[in-house]
Amino acid sequence: MTYLQVRNKAGHTSLLSNSTRTFLIILCLNGIANSLSNIFVNIFLFKVSQNLYEVALFNFVSYVVWMPAFLFAGILSKKIERKLCIIIGSVLQLVFYLCIIGLGKTSVDMLIPLGLIFGIGSGFYWLSVNVLTVDYTNDNNRDWFNALNGIFHSISQMIGPLTAGWIVVMFPGFMGYKTIFALSFLFFLASMFFTFFLPNTTEKSSFDYKSMFAMYGHKEWRYIAYVFSSLAFRDGVLSFIIWIWVYMVTKSEGQLGNYAFITTGFSIITFYLIGRFGRQEQKWSFIVWGSVFLSLSIFILVYKVNYITLLVYGLTSAICIPLFQIPFNTLSLNSISKFDENGKLRIEMVVSRELALSAGRIPSVGCVMLIYFLSKNPEAAIPYFMALIILIGLTSIYFLREYKHTL
Questions:
Q1: Which helix H or strand E contains 14, and what residues bound it?
Q2: Phi, psi of 343 (to 5 degrees)
Q3: Confidence label for 142 from pLDDT (cuts 50, 70 and 90)
Q4: Global pTM?
Q5: Please, which pLDDT band fits residue 123 given cuts at 50, 70 and 90?
Q6: Residue 71 pLDDT > 80
Q7: Which residues contact 113 (CB under 8 A, 6 or more apart)?
Q8: Minimal CA–CA distance to 331: which of 388, 269, 404, 273?
Q9: Which residues cross the membrane (predicted)?
Q10: Tell me, what's the pLDDT at 129?
Q11: What CATH number has the domain spanning 210-407?
């Protein structure tokens, strides 16, 4: 039995089809490209500008256009070949990294155009990934596909930042950054090459706006959407500001790579232990304790930001995020399957979830941007905003408590 085979519950061997293997290769190549550069794009912009406002502006613009791009990609996916959306997303990612490489230090003067390209490309790419994952897998091999994808993704998230950090250290000036951006470009190019080998999957129909918005009339989905928004409000800022802070206190891209390696390693171990030994009756406790202790680790950063507090946050979040995420993913997927009418509203459900995520990310990053733009002493204001992040993140427990029986 090869590594692409697994025995299902009935004892039959399920083999990933050629299209599923190709799609898995695409995801792996994209994962490697993103792991090399995602963190360091923000570090590069900060290093050039020496201003967190510029980094927040780039992320804010990206998130603002991400949602309409995601929606438009969803509408297109019901009209054209679905793989075309992942091709469009890949092309825009290539354009983004070409621009970064070509502009170099002057990238900081083109933050809005760069944010637009990155956000639109991400919207198209992630809509397509969400939809094609269902199209190219089935009930017999979906768990195995997700497991393989999770393993490859986790390994790339450990090795990518570590490798990128030390490449930047090895090469003088900004040559190291250009090297990792060029490597990302090549991996994205290889990924796009493989998309042309995906089979065509067209199910022409109209995007059902009415049904999508009608979902919010159901209390269960509305509460799940509130949770998505509250988590995105917290994670939208933490997804880039933590890495900036680590770089600010260490002054070393190599140490930043080490930090990412250590924290991601802890996260992988936690994901494995919970998946392997977690029991059904523990899931609600995982959600509560994961949320509470993650909030406490953020509170440490309200008090003081140094390498020790950042490491405490990193290690705590590496344990607490899997504790919360695994049972919450189960709960949200159960809810999605309840409302998607046997797959007829699959794209609408994915877009509905993204609407909720954008409703959290955009105001959150926008607040950070305004703090650094308007405040004469942003370092004094940020702790209050971090406290707000903690409170909003904790609301997830309130909204989920009524549906813990669905876990």
A1: strand 13-15
A2: 95, -10
A3: low
A4: 0.88
A5: very high
A6: yes
A7: 99
A8: 404
A9: 21-45, 57-77, 84-104, 110-132, 144-168, 180-202, 223-250, 256-274, 286-305, 311-334, 355-375, 381-400
A10: 85
A11: 1.20.1250.20
Which residue is listed with tokens 């360091």?
A: 40
Residue reference for tokens 């995105």: 232
Tell me if the domain spanning 17-195 has CATH number 1.20.5.440: no
Which amino acid is located at 201 in the chain?
T
Q: Which residue has the tokens 């509460």?
A: 223
The residue type of 243 is W
Domain ranges, ordered by start, for the chain: 17-195, 210-407
Residues in CB range of 167: below 8 A, 6 or more apart: 176, 179, 180
Q: Which residues of 237-273 are buried (b: 16+ CB within 10 A; e: fewer)?
A: bbbbbbbbbbbebeebbbbbbbbbbbbbbbbbebbee
Which of helix, strand or coil describes residue 6? strand
Write the secondary structure of 18-78 as one string of H (helix), E (strand) and C (coil).
Answer: HHHHHHHHHHHHHHHHHHHHHHHHHHHHHHHHCCHHHHHHHHHHHHHHHHHHHHHHHHHHC
Tokens representing 85?
């959306």
Instruction: In whole angstroms, give the CA distance from residue 287 to residue 281.
Output: 12
Q: Report which of 330, 327, 358, 339 is spatially closest to residue 221, judged by C-alpha positions.
A: 339
Residue in the structure block whose two tokens are 């490597």: 183
76 C-beta neighbours (distance < 10 Å), count: 19
What Rg, from alpha-carbon coordinates, does the chain have? 21
- Residue 202's pLDDT is what? 64
Does this chain's domain 17-195 share its CATH topology with 210-407? yes
Helices (H), 136-208: 142-170, 175-195
Structure tokens at 129: 């990934």
Q: Scanning the structure block, which residue is given the tokens 């760069």?
A: 114
Buried b or exposed e, range 134-144, using 16+ CB within 10 angstroms: ebbbeebbeeb
Between helices 219-250 and 253-277, what is the axis angle to 10°? 140
Q: How far is CA 369 from CA 52, 114, 155, 233, 389, in A?
A: 8, 17, 32, 14, 15
> Is-contact 179 187, C-beta < 8 A?
no
